Amino acid sequence: MKNGQQDKRAGILKNIYIGLVFLFLYLPIFMVIIFSFNKSKMNIVWEGFTLQWYGTFFHNRTLMESLWVSLLIAVISTAVSTVIGTLGAIGLNKFHFKGKDFIDQLLYIPVVIPEIILGVALLCIYSAINMPLGILSITLSHITFCIPFVVISVRARLAGFDKYLEEAAMDLGANEFVTFWKIILPLIMPGVTSGALLSFSLSMDDVIISFFVTGPGSTTLPLKILSMVKTGVTPEVNALSTIIMFVIILIISINTGLQVKKLKAKPF
After folding, report:
1. Dihedral of CA 83/84/89/92: which sign?
2. What mean pLDDT value characterizes the chain?
3. Which homologous superfamily is 55-265 in?
4. Mind listing the pLDDT tens digit for each residue in 9-35?
5. SS3 content of the chain, % helix, strand, coil (to 5)
6. 268 has a pLDDT exceeding 50
7. Which of 78-82, 83-87, 94-98, 110-114 has the lowest mean pLDDT?
């Protein structure tokens, strides 16, 4: 009886602890969503409920321009880094060559070093080759720090890859391209998708590196919001942030649902 009461008490404490952790993580997000419906332009105190900010931010020209710049850079950098990172992960997993361990270590450098160091380093490179700062410089910078995340995600998926499937496909007459397209890519697609989503989120979210390599006419949304902090962030930013969050959650949910559906459809 005493053990049962202790287990029940431990379960309650565990649930309280988990609830506090989730509250700490998601309370700021809920506050952003709540204040996107606030009537107050200063966005400091709650003055009443309104939906006007979900319509007015479309008419904020500078905010929308920075959003389109961020989306353009994020889409391009995600596409390029996903292709390069996937091919790089497959090559590192499949082939053994001199210096492979050294390259493995180099891949983790952009992940572990402070972003300010990478931003300064990229700025020095662009200055040395007299490259004008703008959308191109930001895109190249985002590709640089996104590739390692794609490689890590895809290699994690490749760790459980059955190499005999590839050999069986080639024994049946498939060439290397067909084997990659029909066998390897579908099996590692969850890792590729995870790496792409992570790259997109990192690109949309980046502030520090973009701050160093941006130029006139290429202000991203995070940099625009950072500049607005000095004069006060309006509820328009909260409304835009809420929409972006729900779109990302929707994409992740669809991807998760498709992966679960594939797992359920797998014959055992």
Report:
1. positive
2. 83
3. MetI-like (1.10.3720.10)
4. 877 888 898 989 988 888 888 888 888
5. 80, 0, 20
6. no
7. 94-98
Q: Give the residue from 26, 69, 35 showing the smallest Cα distance to 222.
A: 69
Burial environment of residue 40 by CB neighbours within 10 A (0 to 12, 13 to 18, 19 or more): middle
The region that residue 173 occupies, defined by phi over 0 for left and psi between -120 and 50 for alpha, beta otherwise, is left
Instruction: Give me the DSSP letters along 104-121.
Output: HHHHTHHHHS-HHHHHHH
- What three-state secondary structure class fits 265? helix
Question: Measuring CA to CA, which residue among 201, 230, 224 is closest to residue 211?
Answer: 224
Alpha-carbon dihedral 118, 121, 123, 126, rounded to 10 degrees: -120
d(CA 78, CA 83): 9
Residue 206 DSSP symbol = -
DSSP state of 180: I
- The 10 Å Cβ neighbour count of residue 116 is 12
- What's the Cα-to-Cα distance from 253 to each of 33, 177, 246, 248, 264, rounded to whole Å? 19, 31, 10, 8, 16
Given pLDDT bands bounded at 50, 70 and 90, which one contains residue 2?
Answer: low
Domain regions of the chain by residue span: 55-265
DSSP 231: T
Q: What pLDDT sits at residue 4?
A: 65
Q: Could you tell me the pTM of the whole model?
A: 0.82
